[in-house]
What we know:
CATH superfamily: Winged helix-like DNA-binding domain superfamily/Winged helix DNA-binding domain
Largest sheet: 3 strands, antiparallel
Amino acid sequence: MLEVQKENIAKYEEMAELLKALAHPTRLCIVDGLIQNERNVTTIRECLELPQSTVSQHLGILKARGIIQGRRKGTEISYTVTSDLVKRLVRMLLEEM
């Protein structure tokens, strides 16, 4: 029987939430682009050819999980990936494709 220590359950739940946030093609594309370069919503929207509201929803999910961070530059917010773990995961996934 598989023995799971209670202290590990929280860690597994946290990992699962991180993976859920990445488990969408659009969010993976956004994260990959932000790993390469800091970008604002307009740039991301134009690149993906999606409505700004859709891009903003995806950014909100990534931000809530601590994967990205926004920094205000005048009237715009530029986003970057702040999680080194996510950077490694996405690079590893892309290398395998």
